[in-house]
Every structure is written in C-alpha cells, then in structure tokens.
Write a structure and sequence with these properties.
Elements lengths: L9 E3 L12 H8 L6 H9 L7 H12 L4 E6 L5 E9 L5 E9 L7 E7 L10
Antiparallel strand pairs: 1-2, 2-3, 3-4, 4-5
Length: about 130
Amino acid sequence: MGGRGASSYRVIKRLKNYQRATIPRHKMTDYLLNPNGDKNKADFFKTLGYNMKNRERLKKDILAKLKMNKALSYGKNINGDEVFQVNMLLGISKKRMVATGWVIPKGSKAPRLVTAYHNKKLKGRSKQ
C-alpha cells in the first residue's frame, strides 16, 4: 500500500474519519466481485461467501470492521492524498485476512476504498 516502494508507515488506532468511509459501487461490481474482471479477486471473495448477489453484505462487513481495527498510515502520495491500509478478518463461509486500501483525497475528509485483497502474511491475526 502507499505506492510503489512505500514501506514507511505508522500504526494508528483507527482509519481517519472511518465513520465517513465510502465504497464506490463500481469497486464491488467491476473490481472485487466481477468474475469477468480480476478473476483472482472474484474467486477469492467467492471462497469467503461473497458474490454479486450479496455485495451489500461485503460492503457492510468492510465498513463495520473499520471501527474495530487499527490502520497503517502511509502519509500522503504524490497527489497529496492520504493513504491507509486496514487489515481485517472477513468472510461468511470461511474467514481470511483481507487488506483494504483507502485514500482520503486531497481536500476531502471521507476515506474511499481503492483496493482489497487476501493478506496472506497475517494468517488470521485480526489487528496490527
């Protein structure tokens, strides 16, 4: 997270302004759950029990976990946007650690989901 080569981060209690976090609809329908898009992502989320039919459940689960998990703050990217990562345990039929990437655009206060993927490094740890 945080851009190519970014390794410097600090652990913070929660994603900044997590109550205002948004997940654009297209992130679910065109990116995370679309088997015609990134098949690996769609297959991964399918193994957790998420699909196009219950995409609102995935959205709800991600947003609910933001208030429970610490975040990694990577500072600002070259555009001046703040970049964060929040790791969370997600799943309906099976649980796995998922890294979610967030950006707070310059001039905004609302975090926006930009990516989510299986975080194999954490193997079940739910907090940093």
